[in-house]
Amino acid sequence: MNLLDLIKRLVDIRPTTDGNPWVIDGGCNIGQFTRAAMLTFPAHNFLAFEPDPATIRTARENFVSCPRVELVEAALGSSAGRAELFRGPMSATNSLLPRPDSKSKPYYPESAHLAGGTSVNVVTLDEECARRQIKDVDLLKLDLQGGELSALTGAANLLASGSIRVLLVEAVFVEKYQNQPLLWQLWQCLAGHGYSLYSLQQVKIGIYDSAPPSLRDGQWNQCDAIFLSAATREILDC
Domain range holding 98? Predict the structure, then answer.
């Protein structure tokens, strides 16, 4: 079973019943996840966020004839405002956080360097959903290169009410950006709102660049973590 099929089965445990289901894609890049998820969730509306100006231009071109998809040129955070975006040659690694200022060996490709200087909008999920009268979210996907905890903080109302049924969150076991929250910190935040960990998917182990064999090859690097709301968990386990 592929990842989206698994998520669909989890969503179907307790789907939205108001006839207006939503999937939110935080950190959509050029829309790869949204495009795939549209096939799995053909009746859903999609709200996707991407702060990088060049990247979202490509995303808009990719979804020009897709009325079910709304793209927002903004980063997700704990509060609305402006922030500096650190950009590099691989747009998928762009982040509101710089790379670690450390002499230790990194757990990301050497070619994935970043430079600041780009100012972008920052919005919160609570405010953006309230503005659109989105009260229930079947799936929230977050891939924010270190910004996941800030985005969850900005979704406190949605989380407290259990309005988000299933979350798919990129999480790391080692710091790739300065002050990047690790998996346990995301788990702790979500547990405080009644969410529980379902599984870790697509676990990446070791380092990205070639190097002489070492114990670092066995270091857990990152994964996609699936979390369930308390109500979804209750139905799953009954």
Answer: 3-231
Cα separation of 154 and 19, whole Å? 26
Give the tokens for residue 57. Answer: 């231009």
* pTM confidence score: 0.96
Q: What is the CATH number of the domain that holds 98?
A: 3.40.50.150
What are the tens digits of pLDDT across the range 103-157? 667 888 877 889 989 999 999 999 999 999 999 999 999 999 999 999 999 999 9
Token pair, residue 17, equals: 């019943």
Residue with the two structure tokens 């690790």: 182
Cα separation, 206 vs 208, in Å, equals 7
pLDDT tens sequence across 177-208: 999 999 999 999 999 999 999 999 999 998 87
Domain total for the chain? 1
